[in-house]
Design goal:
Oligomer: single chain
CATH architecture of the domain at 415-592: Orthogonal Bundle
CATH superfamily of the domain at 415-592: Isoleucyl-tRNA Synthetase, Domain 1
Largest sheet: 5 strands, parallel
Distance between the termini: 33 Å
Number of helices: 21
Shape: globular
Strand content: 5-15%
Length: 600
Amino acid sequence: MFSIELDAATEKLLALLEANQYPLPGSVDWTPIPFRSQWGFGTAVCFQVAAAEARSGKQVHVPSRAKEISEHLSRALDPLEGFETIEAANGYINLYINKSVYSNRVVNTVLENATEFGRGEPKDAIVMVEYAQPNTHHSFHIGHARTAILGEALARLVSFGGYPTIRASYPGDIGLGVITCIWAYDRFFKGQEPDGVHERGQWLAKIYTEATRLLTPREDETEEERAQREAYDAERRALYKAWDAGEPAVRELWQETRQWSLDELDAILQILGIEIDVFFFESEVDEPSKRIVDELIEQGIAEDERPEGPVIVKIDEKLGLDQEQYRTAVILRSDGTTLYSTKDLALAKVKFEDYDVDRSIYVVDVRQSLHFQQVFKILELWGFPQAKDCFHLAYGFVTLPEGAMSSRAGNVVLFMDVLEEAERRVQDVIAEKNPDLPGKERDRVVRQVGLGALQYSMLSVDNNKDIVFNWDDALSFEGQSAPYIQNAHVRASSILKRAGEIPEESGFEYEMDPTEIELIDKISQFPSTVQRAAEDYKPLLMATYAYELARTFHLFYHAARVIQADDPAVRASRIRLTAAAKQTLANALALLGIQAPAAM
RNA sequence: GCCCCUGUAGCUCAAUUGGACAGAGCAAUGGACUUCUAAUCCAUAGGUUCCGCGUUCGAAUCGCGGCAGGGGCGCCA
């Protein structure tokens, strides 16, 4: 936001260095000054200059020499267009900006751009984000919610950062797990069907758990039980074969139950505000994916060990690595059936060729790190330049305090159950804090706040760390949480509502409160935070930023009066600042997929 | 045996990518609602950034070596 002024300062600084025959630094970086009683930008170039002198043989003590240089240069720099004061501090050169100028520029920029404030320059590279890919015939649990929430936030950030963005999902709709579920349904529950999209999906998951129990060997099982289990297992295998052969009755059974799961998924994605552009179904990718294996064999990348062994790619050998790192990937079973790797390779080709994807991001759990490293390396060997821009956004597990969640074992915490509990708790808080909130609006706020709390608990932890799910932590409404941020937005809204019209101009030509300066400073960091989060694929940066912005606003709220300010000029400026803060809070929350209520 | 990730306050996590005193929340104690919404704020307390060596003017951050925890390593996904 001050790049023009800072570039000019850099130019003058470099000219001074040259004129005084100081060694030139590689680059001049300006960073915000940490102590913001009055704020500006500082640079550490004098340390670099002093260090360069020391290296060239001069007998200097670097820190004190840096101090000396900074004092000299800061005097010589004065005056500088756009900066009020220039000073040397601890070897740094600090440029302080006129508060009024800076404040007006930030606030005006936000209010002019509104919902577009912070959007990055349009870019060419097409980004595809693949996320929210649960298996069908399971129910959507809190672990699945992590990929959905994380992936959506990432997609929003990348898109807002300026990249054309495609949202993709890759549901696992076939496999032994799916067949197991269908088998049990067909054998024991056929014809039953609970009402309600979520009820039906969850019921299917229970059938799966039950089927797994029936098919898992127990240590103390009797001869009779063992025979029964083996008979069940034979039925299941026969069913899989029948599916594979395309037997109409089995396909129909599969289609019907699959749709129940997809309906539930659809309902949940809608709740989360997710609109997937492309669905790649595993069942549809399966058959065509076999073709790429021949291509890889022909090109000498893969080795065919059939019929004794599978088709493999010796990646380390192909890359000439002497230490094992990517190892050997199996890309087709010896019986010719596909593997996960077969399908991911084929799918990547489709993404590159049919969707013109330049950067392909996979939001998938951390256990598949090696798998993706292998896939990316094979794509590279295969000759796809996009391979270097493939990125596995690995996220840690969501576990329960007592251990891992497992759909098979049935000890899962369902997303819908958590949401329901969240909303119940929000109801209680509203009943206590804001009982006058009208019923219709209240229902909407309950959803926004309850869901927001849940979303934020998934976004405020670094993606590569595990989350131990705990009801009270996940549904905290105090401190670093979505409701805290939403509450800042609500307070700003409340002030603006009472203020009426937003004044056309602000002056900020008075002794500003330190919290006011902090707030403006924080707002000004929003665009660069968007860019960093989008470039580094780190939703966490935005989650942290949103909290810090809210915190800064709460501090301002307590320290400075807005509509109660005595001086009309102060009042006008602060109303505009409040409007800018509200807008930035809303924009930041939107990027996280969290809604910003006007009252709560 | 090899590869990847993690290690920061009692607990959960940050730290503008190598910068100025390492910051928040939760939990604890005390305080602020006749005042723009107290889902807030203020105060007190809490640190050998796992350990060691190195690079650098400067290291939580980079390199090497350890230690601890998690994940993964040819026909699961």
